[in-house]
Amino acid sequence: FEQYLPRFAGDVLPQTEAGKVLSIIDKVDNIVATFSRGLIPTGSQDPYALRRQTIGILNILLGSEWNISLRPIFKASMELLNVPTEKQDELLGQVEEFFTLRLKNIFLDREVPHHVIDLLLSNNELSVADAEGLVNALLANRIDENVELVQAYTRMYNLVKDVEYTGVNSDLLKEDAEKELFEAASKASEASSAAWEAGDYDAVVAVPATLVPAINKFFEDVMVMDKDEAIKANRLQLVRLAYSVMAIIGDISALK
Fold first, then answer.
1. C-alpha–C-alpha distance, residues 38 and 18, integer Å
2. Phi (first) and psi of residue 184, to 5 degrees
3. What distance in Å separates the CA atoms of residue 24 and residue 4, rounded to the nearest whole number?
4. What's the whole-model pTM score?
5. By three-state DSSP, how is residue 112 classified?
6. How distant, in Å, are the alpha carbons of 106, 134, 188, 190, 191 from that of 143?
7. Taking a C-beta distance cutoff of 8 angstroms, is the pair 135, 112 a contact?
8. In CATH, which superfamily holds the domain spanning 143-255?
9. What is the pLDDT of residues 234-256, one digit of tens each?
10. Would you kindly state where each structural domain of the chain is located, as residue ranges?
């Protein structure tokens, strides 16, 4: 009985673990199979009730304590349905986008500000539980309203949005401000990662503000684009390290 819950908007959710598992995998199978045939809902047309099934999965996850990623479940479904390997990445992207839009609508119904939702959902690695925890933390600690914080991290984002972090060489740090930022950013990154692992979303959201004074001093005293390529590259790595405490939440450009 629980496998087919919820059957309509506002219906009861499965309560047993077995019922939740069956409901999720049954709905994922339906959604992935229908998408794989190119029958993706458009506009108000949704003859196979894929939106309802997607919202059902999301509500089950939001109402449980399961912090699971749906991506491997989507991939397993594709394998069982014999979706050609060369088509799986495109199909995965379509299904994940469909789920993201439904989750966005759930948060909008709860009157979460648009830009807060955009900040979170810019991170496509988040589980439903992570998104829920971060939404609540962001509503309690409105970093989106902290103009100085947004400006500092936006400045860093513009410099390192395409830079992959490979490490900072402390021997190349010459200025006091960059040494201070390296020390502060290293501690903040460790604190952020530890809080994330512990599921302490309030702490994750609080960490970025602790770096703002060091970031501002760095930009006042240090020329990032130094003529020495090694120093320039190292400073960009430093900025990327500092930005990581925001990146774990989402893309700061969503707050513009």
1. 31
2. -65, -40
3. 9
4. 0.86
5. coil
6. 22, 12, 16, 20, 18
7. yes
8. Isoleucyl-tRNA Synthetase; Domain 1 (1.10.730.10)
9. 999 999 999 999 999 999 988 87
10. 2-111, 143-255
